[in-house]
Design a protein that fits this description.
Strand content of chain B: 15-25%
Strand order of the largest sheet of chain A: 2-1-3-4
Oligomer: heterodimer
Order of helices and strands of chain A: EHEHEEH
CATH superfamily of the largest domain in chain B: P-loop containing nucleotide triphosphate hydrolases
Distance between the termini of chain A: 22 Å
Number of helices of chain A: 3
CATH class of the largest domain in chain B: Alpha Beta
CATH topology of the largest domain in chain B: Rossmann fold
Helix content of chain A: 10-25%
Strand order of the largest sheet of chain B: 5-4-7-8-3-9-10-11-12
Structural class of chain A: alpha+beta
Largest sheet of chain B: 9 strands, mixed
Chain lengths: 123, 586
C-alpha cells in the first residue's frame, strides 16, 4: 500500500514537528506508535506482543509506544477515530497510518517505518 | 396532518412504537418506527435519507424528550449541522444541551492497512460511550456502508454488522440505519438481511421534468402499515409525507349551512346555501365569472367573521381586489381585518408536491373556515393527470377532515363545459356548479346551473348570471317554446310579454265595461217591467175594490128591499151562507 496523503485529524496530538529525513535512512526522531486495543482478548494480546517485539528488536530506543485500552478510555477511541480494534497508529514519522488487525502480517509496517534491514520477527 | 382522521389503524398490536414526529410517516406506520429495533432507510443519492434520519433524532429530542446519537460516516459534524439548519433544526443547540451527540466516524481507506484479524469493537465502544453519555434512546447510523468501501475483509465486516444490530437491539435503542440503494437489491451491500424489522424505501423520480420524492414502507414486521408509495417532500420545516388517500372516509360532517353570498344561489340550493365542510366545484369556460362567484363566497364568509384563505394561481391579490371592486365587492377591509388572506403563486413556480405542502402549511397556520382555490386546473396541469387527481383527493380529504368548506374553480376549454377530467374530479366534490356561456343573437350571456348538490334539494333550473357594478345576481332565464332565452333576447321576450299582458289587460277592461253596460241596460229594463207590474197590480186591486163595493151595495139594497117586503129573505141569506161554509169545510 502506498500512502498518498495523510490529513491528520485535529484531535491527534503532534508531539514534535516532523523532522527532515531521507527516506532510506533510519528515522532521526523517535517513532511514535499508539496501539488501541479493546480489552484483554486474544487479538489484543497478540497485537501488543508483536508491536513490543518490533520495538525491542528494530527500533530500540527510537520508539515510543503507548498501549490504550478503549474500554478504559472510550473518549480516546472517538478522539483518534478508532473503528476497528486492534489498531496501531503510526503517528510519527508522518504520514499517519493505521494498521488494523492483530498484526499477524506486519511486512507493511516495515516498509512504512523504513526498516531497511527487514529482520524477521518470530511470530 | 395529525388530525385528519386517517389514523384509524387500530393500535391494538403489542409492538411498542417510537413516534418519529415526521409529518405523515407516523400515520403510514401506524404510530412510528418499531421501538427498540433497528429500521433500515434505503434509497438512491439525494433521496433525503440523512435528512429523514436527522429529523427522527431532532424531533425525538425536541418533541418526545428522547436523546439520540448520530453516528455519521459521510458528513462531518459541522457539515451536518449546517445541512439540517436549513430545515430549521438547531442541531448545534441540541448538542450543547446534551440531547444529541454527533460522532463523525472517518475511515480513510488510504491510511488503513490490514494486518490480521480485527473486529469493530472500536465502533461499539464509541457508540456505547455516546449512548451512555446522554442516555440516548435513538441512534442513527448514516451511512454504515461506507465501512465496506474503507475497510478490507468483507467477511469480518458482515459478521461484525450482524453483531452490531444484535447489540443495538440488546441496548433497547430505536435505531435508523441508512443505506445506499443497490442495483438489484434494496441496498448495495445487502444490509436488509440484517435489519428485518422495518425497511423504508425512498425514491426520487422525475415525471415530465418535475421531480417527486416517494416513500414506501416495504416491510414492517408485526404491524399494519400503509404499503403504498407516498409522495413526500422536504420543506423548510423538514420532511412531510402526504398520504394520497386517507386510510378511511370517516370524517365528521356538519348539518350547518352557509350562505354563498348570492341570495338567489342560496335559493337554488334549498334556500340555505352549502353545507359547512363540503367541497364545491365551480366549473366554467373562460370569462364566465368563476372568480367573481368565489369572491362573493369569500366576502360572505368573511362578513360572518370566518377566516377565508384564497389561493390564486392566476391573479395577484391586488389584481383580484381591484377587479372585484369594479363589481362592488370591497375586499380590502376584510384583508385588513385579517379575515381574508390571499396566497398567490404561479403554478409553474414549483412542483405539485411543493404546492400542496405550501398549501397545507398555510392552512395549518391560518386555520381558515373557507378555502378557495382558483383555479385548481392550472395547478393540476403542473403534474401528471394521476398526480393531479391524487393531489385534489388529498386536499379535499384534508380540508374535509378539518371541517373546512372548500371551493375549487375549474377552467374548461371552450366547447362543451363538461369534460372527462371534470367528471373524474367531480366525483370527489359534494356540490358542482356550472357556469356557462350562452351564445346567440350576436351576444354571449352567462348562465348557471347546479349540477349536483349532495344531501340537499336543489333547483334543476337554468339561471342567467348577471354581473353589474352593483354585484352579481341571478335571474330566471326565459324558457319557452323557442328554447332558452338570455340577455337581450330575454329582455325582448320579456318586453313582448309585457306588451301582450298590457293589451290583454286592456281587452279585459273593455269587455268588463261592455258587460257593465249590458247589465245596466237589463237593469233598466227590469225596472221598467217592475213599474209596469206594479201599476198592473194597482189596477187589479182597484178592480177588486170596485167589485167588493158593488157587491156590498147590492146586498145592502137587497136587505133593504127585503125588509121593506117583510120577506123571509133573512132566512134565505143564512141558509146560503151556511151552505157556502160547509163547502169550504169539506
Amino acid at each position: 500500500m502506498k500512502a498518498m496523503k495523510s490529513p491528520k485529524p485535529k484531535s491527534t496530538r503532534r508531539l514534535r514537528p516532523a523532522l527532515k529525513q531521507s527516506p532510506a535512512s533510519h528515522p532521526e526522531g523517535k517513532c511514535i506508535l499508539r496501539l488501541f486495543v479493546a480489552g484483554a482478548t486474544v487479538r489484543s494480546r497478540q497485537a501488543i506482543l508483536r508491536v513490543r517485539e518490533l520495538c525491542a528488536a528494530e527500533l530500540k530506543d527510537h520508539c515510543q509506544l503507548e498501549v490504550i485500552d478503549i474500554y478504559q478510555q472510550p473518549g480516546l477511541a472517538r478522539e483518534n477515530q478508532i473503528v476497528a480494534t486492534p489498531t496501531l497508529i503510526v503517528e510519527f514519522p508522518p504520514p499517519l497510518r493505521r494498521f488494523i488487525g492483530n498484526l499477524a502480517n506486519i511486512s507493511g509496517l516495515f516498509v512504512e517505518l523504513d526498516l531497511v534491514k527487514k529482520v524477521r520477527i518470530t511470530p | 396532518m395529525k388530525n385528519n382522521g386517517s389514523k384509524s389503524i387500530p393500535l391494538k398490536t403489542l409492538l411498542p412504537k417510537c413516534p418519529t414526529g415526521i409529518q405523515g410517516l407516523d400515520e403510514i406506520t401506524g404510530g412510528g418506527l418499531p421501538r427498540g429495533r433497528p429500521t433500515l432507510v434505503c434509497g438512491g443519492a439525494g433521496c433525503g435519507k440523512t435528512l429523514l434520519a436527522a429529523e427522527f433524532l431532532v424531533r425525538g429530542a425536541t418533541q418526545f424528550g428522547e436523546p439520540g446519537v448520530l453516528m455519521a460516516f459521510e458528513e462531518t459534524e459541522k457539515e451536518l449541522k449546517a445541512n439540517v439548519a436549513s430545515l430549521g433544526f438547531d442541531l448545534e443547540g441540541l448538542v450543547r444541551r446534551k440531547m444529541i451527540v454527533i460522532d463523525y466516524v472517518r475511515v480513510e481507506r488510504s491510511e488503513v492497512q490490514e494486518s490480521g484479524e480485527y473486529d469493530l469493537e472500536g465502533l461499539f465502544v464509541r457508540l456505547g460511550h455516546a449512548i451512555a453519555a446522554i442516555g440516548a434512546q435513538r441512534v442513527v447510523l448514516d451511512t454504515l456502508e461506507v465501512l465496506f468501501a474503507s475497510l478490507p475483509n468483507e467477511a469480518i465486516l458482515r459478521s461484525e454488522l450482524r453483531r452490531l444490530f444484535r447489540w443495538l437491539k440488546d441496548k433497547g435503542v430505536t435505531a435508523v440505519i441508512t443505506a445506499e440503494r443497490g442495483r438489484e437489491s434494496m441496498t448495495r451491500h445487502g444490509l436488509e438481511e440484517y435489519v428485518s424489522d422495518c425497511v423504508i424505501l425512498l425514491d426520487h423520480r422525475i415525471n415530465d421534468q418535475i421531480a417527486t420524492r416517494h416513500l414506501r414502507v416495504v416491510k414492517y414486521r408485526g404491524a399494519l402499515h400503509g404499503t403504498n408509495e407516498f409522495p413526500f417532500l422536504i420543506g423548510d420545516e423538514g420532511i412531510s409525507v402526504l398520504p394520497i388517500t386517507s386510510l378511511s372516509l370517516n370524517h365528521k360532517v356538519s348539518d350547518e349551512r352557509i350562505a354563498t353570498g348570492i341570495p338567489r344561489l342560496d335559493a337554488m340550493l334549498g334556500g340555505r346555501g352549502f353545507f359547512r365542510g363540503s367541497s364545491i366545484l365551480l366549473t366554467g369556460t373562460p370569462g364566465t365569472g368563476k372568480t367573481i362567484v368565489s369572491a362573493n363566497f369569500a366576502q360572505a364568509a368573511a362578513r360572518r367573521g370566518e377566516r377565508v384563505l384564497f389561493f390564486s394561481f392566476e391573479e395577484s391579490p391586488d389584481q383580484i381586489i381591484r377587479n372585484m371592486h369594479s363589481i362592488g365587492l370591497r375586499l380590502e377591509p376584510l384583508v385588513k381585518r385579517g379575515l381574508l388572506r390571499f396566497h398567490s403563486a404561479r403554478p409553474s413556480l414549483y412542483g405539485l408536491e411543493m404546492h400542496l405542502a405550501r398549501m397545507f402549511k398555510e392552512i395549518t397556520t391560518f386555520k381558515p373556515h373557507v378555502v378557495i382555490i382558483d383555479p385548481i386546473t392550472s395547478l393540476m396541469d403542473s403534474g401528471t393527470e394521476s398526480e393531479g387527481k391524487g393531489m385534489v383527493t388529498r386536499l379535499v380529504d384534508y380540508l374535509k377532515a378539518g371541517q373546512v368548506t372548500s371551493l375549487f374553480t375549474s377552467l374548461t376549454q371552450g366547447g362543451h363545459a363538461l369534460q372527462q377530467s371534470e367528471a373524474a374530479m367531480s366525483s370527489l366534490m359534494d356540490s358542482w356548479l356550472l357556469l356557462q356561456d350562452f351564445e346567440g343573437n350576436g351576444e354571449r350571456n352567462r348562465v348557471l346551473y347546479v349540477l349536483k348538490a349532495r344531501g340537499m334539494a336543489h333547483s334543476n333550473q337554468i339561471r342567467e348570471f348577471l354581473i353589474s357594478d352593483r354585484g352579481v345576481d341571478l335571474v330566471d332565464a326565459y324558457i319557452g317554446p323557442s328554447g332558452v332565452l338570455t340577455g337581450s333576447a330575454r329582455a325582448a321576450q320579456e318586453a313582448l310579454e309585457k306588451a301582450a299582458g298590457l293589451s290583454s289587460q286592456q281587452e279585459a277592461a273593455r269587455r268588463k265595461r261592455e258587460l257593465e253596460r249590458k247589465r245596466e241596460v237589463i237593469e233598466r229594463q227590469i225596472n221598467g217591467l217592475r213599474s209596469d207590474y206594479e201599476s198592473e197590480t194597482m189596477e187589479l186591486r182597484r178592480v177588486d175594490e170596485q167589485v167588493g163595493t158593488s157587491t156590498l151595495m147590492l146586498t145592502t139594497e137587497r136587505t133593504a128591499s127585503g125588509i121593506l117586503r117583510h120577506a123571509d129573505a133573512k132566512v134565505a141569506v143564512h141558509a146560503r151562507n151556511r151552505a157556502r161554509n160547509g163547502k169550504v169545510k169539506s
